[in-house]
Amino acid sequence: MKLSITGVNHRTAPVEVREKLAFPESELPEALRSLRAGAGVEEALILSTCNRVEVAVMGNDAAAITRFLAGYRSMDPLWLAPYLYHYSGDEALRHLFRVAASLDSMVVGEPQILGQLKAAYQVAKDSGCLSGPLESVLSRAFNTAKRVRTETEIGQSAVSVSYAAVELAREIFGSLKGRRVLLIGAGKMSELAARHLKRSGATDILVTNRTRSRAEDMAAMFEGRVIDYEDFLQTMPEVDIIITSSGAPDYILRPADMKRVIEKRRNRPMFLIDIAVPRNIDPAINKLDNVFLYDIDDMQRVVADNISGRKIEAEQAEQIVIEEVERTISSMRLREVGPTIAGLQDQLEQLRMAEMERMRGKFGTLTPQQEQALDALTKGIMNKVAHAHIVELRKDAGKPGGGHVGNAIRRVFRLGEPS
To answer: What's the pTM value of the predicted model, to 2 decimals?
Structure first.
């Protein structure tokens, strides 16, 4: 199997690296076209979330994918390389299934990653980048995630990054009751944060977004108020907690802005959580007195406190992933032996015909009945020779770790690698 995955995640690269590599959804079609042209692959998918950027292709040229990622973001490949991981073959398949099942997430069991993977699948499909084995593998990954959700309770105690952010706010303030909250950005992350804030007692939720209609929809869900995007800086002195998840390409809050806000608040503390990638808030703000800024990597501490309760469920989920990986590999190998079987039969037929032609002069003139009998005899011999090989091919392909018989037969009969 030629599946390979190259990328970074929250364990291999800090947020300042991940945000440089992140792909807004609007850029994905063009990025996929560039990837196919530069790396010479037919099937490809790019998954870009706040915690990971991964490129999955049918091919195994990790260097080409590294060049694509570095080149697309004008980065030095040598600087980027230490942050990247690369999986190929069975390991790539296992990694993909674990990602879909939320076993590789910062928050094990969170449901958002499956939706993000499906969205990436749809963009790749619409861009003409999925039409064969990679598409089949992704469908298997979705089925694996469904099994994990159905057969374990891993999602029951799961939390999202948004939930972790709210938990951190509650840890700082104690109770969130009576606290005024401003959400900058009206995407899925903000919606999840608002749900947790509401459950935690926050009674005054303000929402702002570049597209006002989205902010209005969000505010209506939670009985909140909409703030014009151009005016949110003026509103900030009245706010205790700010959670940013805007898709802005650059910082929307800088130290000079926050200094004026804190002065107007008469140095009452403010709590800022930046869960956007790229980050919305200049990290230099954390140097100001009475301003407490946390970014998405800081969420890992909150997440770690919830891991022990999901350990048993995660172990059960890992077993499901192992089963599904083995089943998928067996299924793919059974399909892959088809060309080997056809090649073997074709080569034996060519040998039979060549030997028939070579011996024809020694037989003299044969009657039609004799020609038919000789043809049936030689075909029968070749079929018996091929039969045992084909049986062993199929049997071996269906086993975990199989494929050795196919490799041996291709070498012995010089069939070459299957396309």
So the answer is: 0.68
Q: In the listed set 275, 307, 339, which residue is the last one of a domain according to the structure?
A: 307
13 and 122, same domain (yes or no): yes
Q: How many domains does the chain have?
A: 2
- By annotation, the residues acting in catalysis are 50
Q: What is the CATH number of the domain that holds 202?
A: 3.40.50.720
- One-letter amino acid at 377 equals L
73-111 residue pLDDT tens: 999 999 999 999 999 999 999 999 999 999 999 878 888
**Cβ pair 310, 108 in contact under 8 A:** yes
| d(C-alpha 305, C-alpha 92), whole Å | 29
Give the residue ranges of DSSP H helices in 364-419.
368-397, 404-412
Reading the block at residue 187, the tokens are 């995407």
Last residue of a domain, one of 151, 170, 192: 151
Q: How far apart are CA 53 and CA 225, in angstroms?
A: 34
In single-letter form, the type of residue at position 124 comes to A
194 and 262 co-located in one domain:
yes
In angstroms, how far is CA 196 from the centroid of its own chain? Answer: 26
Residues 6+ apart with CB under 8 A from 320: 101, 144, 147, 148, 151, 152
**Average pLDDT over the chain, rounded to an integer:** 88
CATH code where residue 87 lies: 3.30.460.30
Determine the straight-line distance between the first and last CA of the chain, rounded to whole angstroms: 11
